[in-house]
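Data deposition worksheet. Section B asks for the primary sequence of the deposited chain exactly as it was used as input, without tags or linkers unless they were present during the calculation. Section C holds the resulting structure in C-alpha cell form. Section D is free text for depositor observations; keep each observation to a single sentence. Incomplete worksheets are returned to the depositor.
Section A, Depositor: J.P.
Section B:
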Amino acid sequence: MDRNGRDQRHMEEEEEEKRDELDPNQKTKRARGDNHQGLVMAEESMSVERIFEAQEVPSWQNQLTVRAFVVSFGLSVLFTFIVMKLNLTTGIIPSLNVSAGLLGFFFVKTWTKLLEKSGFLKQPFTRQENTVIQTCVVASSGIAFSGGFGSYLFGLSQRISQLSSADINEFKNPSLGWIIGFLFIVSFLGLFSVVPLRKIMIVDFKLTYPSGTATAHLINSFHTPRGAKLAKKQVRTLGKFFSFSFLWGFFQWFFTAGDDCGFVSFPTFGLKAYKNKFYFDFSATYVGVGMICPYIINISVLVGGILSWGLMWPLIEKKRGDWFSAELPLSSFHGLQGYKVFISIALILGDGTYNFVKVLATTLIGLHRQLKKRDIIPVSDGSPTSTSDVSFDDKRRTQLFLKDQIPSWFVIGGYVAIAAVSIATLPHIFSQLKWYYILVIYVIAPVLAFCNAYGTGLTDWSLASTYGKLAIFTIGAWAGAAHGGVLAGLAACGVMMNIVSTASDLMQDFKTGYMTLSSPRSMFVSQVVGTAMGCIISPCVFWLFYKAFDDLGQPESAYPAPYATVYRNMALLAFDILQMPPEFSFTNLTLHQINLRGKHDQDWYRIHAEHIAMWHLQNNFRVEAIATHELTVSDDYFLWYSSITRHFITPAYSNVAFVK
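Section C:
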C-alpha cells in the first residue's frame, strides 16, 4: 500500500472516532454488525448443508434402489446372528446403528467404484441411499430383539416351562410357521402409530434422538471427500479386527473337546472360583460388546456378577436343607434357582419402574414446557414457525422434510386395517389371547408409543421391554390361570413390545433422515421393507440355534436365554401361581384359613378329606376329575385350594383337580 492510501485510511479512522464521540451508540452498532457478520461467516463455514448445496437431492423413489436393499439384506443376516447370539446369552444388545451405516457405506461404495471403472455406473451413491440402508438394516435386526426370541417368545416353550415347578403346564413350542405369521401380524402396527406426529417431534419440539443424530453426522461425514478417506480407514481397521476375531475363534476350536473344555472355560481365578462361574471364555464377542456399551452398563454387570455369583449364591447354597429342600434339583424354582430368578426379577422390575416413572415424568414436563411456549400445538404442516434464529441447515432440512408427506388417511387407514386383521387372526395363533384383550392393547398402544418415542428422543432410552412387562401383568391377571393367563400374558407382551419398539425406532430414523435430507417416504418404505425382512430372517436364525443346541435355555448351557425364564415367571407372578402351600400340617381337622403372604385373608384354604363334602355345600362348588383315588375320612393328608387360581393342590404340589 502506498503513502496516499495510508493517509486516506488514517483520515477515515479519524472521522469514525469523531462520529463515535458525537454518537456513542454508533460504535456499538458497528461492533454488533461486525459480530453478526462474523457469526454468519462462522455458521456458513460450519454448515453441513452448504457443503452439499450444489448436489441435487434425489426424489424419494430414487433413494430406494435395488442395490441398497440387496446390501441391506446381507447386512441384516449378519447383524441378526449377532443380536440373536447376544439375546440367548447375556440379553444385552448394544446399538448397531453406526455399524450399519459404516458397513452400508463401504459395500455400496465398493460396488459403485467397480461399476464406475467399468463404465456401467448409472446412479451415484448418495447419503440418502446410505440412510435407506442403515434404516433397513436396523429395522430388520431390531426384530431379533422385539420378536422376543430371548425373552417372551422363547418363554412360551416347553423347555422354559419345565424349568418352573409351578402347577401349570401351559406352553407353545416354537415353530417357523406361527412365529413368522405372528411377527408379520404385530410388527407393522407401530410404524403407523406415530407417523402423524413426526413434524411435532422433530421440527417443532426439536427432540435430539442422540443415536439418530450421531448416525446422521456419521453418514454426512462419509460423503465428504475428507470423510470418505476416514471411512475407508475405519473399514480397513474393521477388517483387521474381524479377521483377528475369526481366526481366534477358529484357533479356540482346536482346543475344545466338550462344553467345559479348552479356552472357553479357562479357570482364571482357580478351580474354586470356577465352580461359581468365575472363569474367562476368551470370547471376542463379549469383548466387543464391552467396548461398545457405555461404561456404566459394564460396571453394573460386573458388580452384579460379583455380588451374585461371588457372595449371594454361595451363601444361599449353604442354606440347602434349611431354606429349601436338599433333594431339589438345581433347576427347581423351589430351590436355589428360585432365589436367583426372583431376586433378579425384583431388581429388574424395581429399576424398570423407576426409569418408567422418570422417563414419563420427563416426557410430561417436556410436553408442558412445549405447550407453554405456544398457544396451540402445530398439527398442520402449514403452521407458522419463527425463522428469525433458524440456521441455513435447519431451514433446508425442514423444507425437504415437509415436502414429501405421508397422507394422514393412509396412516390411519393402515393402522385400522392392520389392527382389524390382527384382532381376527391372533386368537387363532394363541387361543388364550382373546380378541378383546387385543382390542384394548391397540386402543392404548398409540399413547404408549408416543410416550416411548418422546422419551427416546430425550434420553435415547427405549422402554419397550417395560411396556411389555406391563402387558404381561395386566393381561395375565385379566385372563387368570384357569384361562391360560401365562400364554395370554406373554403373547400380549409381544404385541405391546413390537408396537412401542418399532415406533421409537421409526422416529429415530426420521431424525436421521431429517439431517441427511432423506425423504420421510423413503424412510417409511425402508422401515417397512426392513421389518418384513426381519420377520423372515430372525425366525430362521433362531430356528438354527433352536435345532442346533438341545440344551438351549438351560441354566448351565452356553445359551441359557436368561430373560426367557424371567419373562415366564413374571407371567406366573401375574396371578400368584407360584404361591405354594406350606409343608407343615395341623392336627385340627376343622376348616382352616391360612394367610401365606399377607395379601388377602382368603388366598388359600386348607381342607381335610373329611370336610370336602361340607365345603362343597357351603361354597356351591364341585370338584371334577380328581386324579387320585376317591377321598375318604381315613386319608391322612390335606388338600389346599387357592381362591385366586381356582386350583386344588396336594402337599406334593401336584394339581389334582379344578374347580368348576
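Section D:
The two ends are 107 Å apart (CA to CA).
The chain has three domains: 3-46, 60-325+335-379+393-573, 592-659.
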